[in-house]
Design a protein that fits this description.
Blueprint lengths: L2 H39 L1 H4 L4 H9 L21 E5 L16 E5 H7 L16 H42 L1
Antiparallel strand pairs: 1-2
The protein binds zinc ion (ZN).
Length: 172
């Protein structure tokens, strides 16, 4: 490669990596800036909200990524919103604070999903891009849906058993 050509290629490489870096930084920094401002501006978010989780909450529009429930819809006795680790913290502790691995979820979906690993053991090999994230959410959503049906059946049989037991007790 000639000296001139090398100079041109090197210049191109430098400018492309610079602009990509800048683009990536600005998006993340913007989200972080909003999260910090929100935490400072609202007593609700100032306490107990990890700044990474708050960024995920803003990114996903404050809705459970699994069932779509709006997490700030109403005030209830229990804390509706929780931070879920898309790839479980117990299996991937290194991803515990990664914003891309954090998603807002409702208590019910969070409990149903539990330790399900949508990456099937490949969590440390994959890069969680937006497309990958969507895919992991879709798989988890399906698992949660099936589990809700399964637990619903168990609940219904428990309810019937309880009624039978009460009826029998009353016969004595
Ligand atoms: Zn949900």
């Amino acid at each position: 490669m000639s000296r001139e050509l090398f100079g041109i290629v090197w210049g191109m490489l430098l400018s492309s990596s610079r602009s990509e870096g800048k683009l990536l930084m600005s998006r993340q920094e913007e989200l972080r800036g909003i999260a910090i401002a929100l935490r400072r501006g609202s007593p609700y978010f100032s306490d107990g909200w990890n700044i990474n989780m708050l960024q995920a909450f803003i990114r996903d529009d404050g809705c459970c990524v699994y069932c779509g429930k709006e997490l700030l819809k109403k005030f209830g006795p229990s804390f509706e919103a929780c931070g879920d680790h898309l790839l479980p913290k117990s299996l991937y502790p290194d991803l515990a604070e990664n914003v891309d691995n954090l998603v807002p979820a409702c208590i019910e979906c969070n409990r149903m999903k539990h330790n399900y690993d949508a990456s099937e053991g490949k969590g440390m090999e994959i890069v969680i891009t937006e497309r990958v994230r969507r895919g992991l959410i879709r798989k988890s959503r399906e698992v949660i849906r099936r589990k809700k049906i399964e637990e619903g059946r168990v609940f219904q049989s428990g309810k019937a058993a309880f009624r039978r037991a009460v009826a029998q007790y009353r016969q004595y």
